[in-house]
Specification:
Blueprint: E1 5-7, E2 13-15, E3 18-22, H1 32-46, E4 50-57, E5 68-72, E6 74-76, E7 79-81, H2 85-96, E8 100-105, H3 110-121, E9 125-129, H4 140-149, H5 152-159, E10 162-165, H6 168-175
Helix pairs in contact: 2-3, 3-5
Length: 179
Amino acid sequence: CELPTHMYKGGSQLPRMRILQVTGAYPPTIGGGPSIGRDMTAYLLDRGHHVSVVTTDPGDGDRGDSDVYRAPAKRIAGAPVEPTFPRLLHRVADQVDPGIIHSYYPLPFYPDVAAAYASTKNIPFVLTCFGAWESSFDSVIGTLGFAYNNTLLRGTLRLTDAAHTLSPGALTDIDTYDG
């Protein structure tokens, strides 16, 4: 199946990509991460790419977008949690057949599942990092962050083909765990 092409700066023709974005939260959920995911989706769509999003549904808004697939989630300590998310990701990815998978961190679990799936299917994986999860022993969340950053995050970074951050501070946070 040949994909349509469109013009890029300089007149070159490049194939349109099928991109699967994986994120724990997406609009109508309010926040910086969901907004960045929405803006990235709009940017890629404007350039002619096919973009699908796999995310959660915390039950706080409209679910009418046909290219946004949502797993029903509960909020625990403010974060969406849905143990069946990997099953939804596999089903959608198998259906969409992405050429690239893009995920967002620091909300844990979602980029880890996406990286593992991409690795098993030999699909390039890109990770956008907003910074590392809180890592301390001052609270339950900080202790969980310490454990996550030193285990799953390290594994996810090893499976990542390209990572980028939104600030030098976030780069410093991530470099701590990229070993």
